[in-house]
C-alpha cells in the first residue's frame, strides 16, 4: 500500500526524498510486515511510542554507534549508543504520510475505514524560534550594507518581519518609526512581542 501511495502522490522532489527516507528508516522496518487490514489504533500508538523511544529502533541492546559503517579504527566519534527520540515534527509528518496512504486504501475499497483516526495524533512541536536580539539584528544589518542590494533586502526582511515568499512578491509599504528605535543606519528594531511570533517588526506597527 505504501509503495503505491508513494508512486501516486504528487509531492515535490525534495518532499518525496524526505518521505522516502522516513519510509525506509522508520515505517517499513516497524510496520512493513503488517497487512493493511490488520492495522489498528493500538498498532499506531505503539509505533509512535517506538518513534519517541529511539530514532534508531535499537532493540534496547548495548552497542556502539560507529562513526561509519565501513571498516575503520574506532576513535572518540564511536560512542556507546544512547537512545534519542525522533523529533515531534518528524513523527507528525510520518503520521500524515500513513494517514494519506490509509485514506487511499479506503477509497480503493481495501479497508472500510481508516484505523489511524482512532490513534493519537502526534502533537505539533512547540515553536522555539531564536530570533536575533535587536543588538544582533543591528550588527547583521550593518554588515549586510557592505553590499547595498543585499543590505536593502536584509533591512527590509528585518524591519517588516515578512516571510521569504512575501519578500519575493511585489509590494510597497511606508513605515514611520521614531528615531530612538533606529540603528545607526536608520533601521527600526524591536524584540518580538511573543516568543511564538518571533518576527522583528517596526516599532509601533
Ligand atoms: Zn567505530
Ligand atoms: Zn536506542
Give a written overview of the molecule.
By secondary structure, this protein is mostly helical. It has two domains: 2-118, DNA polymerase, domain 1 (Orthogonal Bundle), CATH 1.10.150; 127-205, no CATH class. The protein has helices at residues 2-8, 13-31, 41-53, 88-107, 134-144, 148-160, 164-168, and strands at residues 64-65, 79-80. It has a two-stranded antiparallel ribbon. α1 (2-8) packs across α4 (88-107), α2 packs across α4 and α5 (134-144) packs antiparallel against α6 (148-160). The longest helix is centred in the middle third of the chain and has 20 residues, at 88-107. The relative contact order is 0.11. Residues 66-67, 72, 74, 78 line the site of one zinc ion.
Question: Can you give me a brief rundown of this structure?
Answer:
The protein is 43% helix and 2% strand. It has 205 residues and is an all-alpha fold.
Amino acid at each position: 500500500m505504501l509503495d503505491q501511495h508513494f508512486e501516486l502522490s504528487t509531492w515535490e522532489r525534495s518532499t518525496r526524498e524526505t518521505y522516502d527516507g522516513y519510509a525506509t528508516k522508520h515505517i517499513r522496518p516497524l510496520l512493513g510486515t503488517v497487512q493493511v487490514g490488520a492495522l489498528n489504533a493500538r498498532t499506531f500508538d505503539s509505533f509512535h511510542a517506538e518513534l519517541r523511544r529511539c530514532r534508531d529502533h535499537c532493540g534496547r541492546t548495548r552497542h556502539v554507534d560507529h562513526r561509519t559503517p565501513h571498516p575503520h579504527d574506532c576513535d572518540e566519534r564511536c560512542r556507546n549508543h544512547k537512545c534519542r527520540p525522533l523529533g515531534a515534527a518528524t513523527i507528525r509528518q510520518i503520521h500524515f504520510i500513513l494517514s494519506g496512504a490509509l485514506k487511499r486504501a479506503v477509497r480503493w475499497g481495501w479497508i472500510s475505514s481508516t484505523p489511524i483516526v482512532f490513534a493519537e495524533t502526534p502533537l505539533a512541536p512547540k515553536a522555539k524560534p531564536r530570533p536575533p536580539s535587536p543588538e544582533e539584528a543591528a550588527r547583521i544589518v550593518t554588515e549586510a550594507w557592505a553590499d547595498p542590494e543585499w543590505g536593502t533586502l536584509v533591512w527590509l526582511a528585518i524591519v517588516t518581519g515578512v516571510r521569504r515568499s512575501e519578500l519575493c512578491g511585489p509590494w510597497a509599504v511606508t513605515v514611520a518609526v521614531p528615531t530612538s528605535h533606529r540603528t545607526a543606519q536608520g533601521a527600526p528594531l524591536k524584540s518580538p512581542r511573543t516568543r511564538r511570533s518571533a518576527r522583528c517588526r517596526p516599532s509601533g506597527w
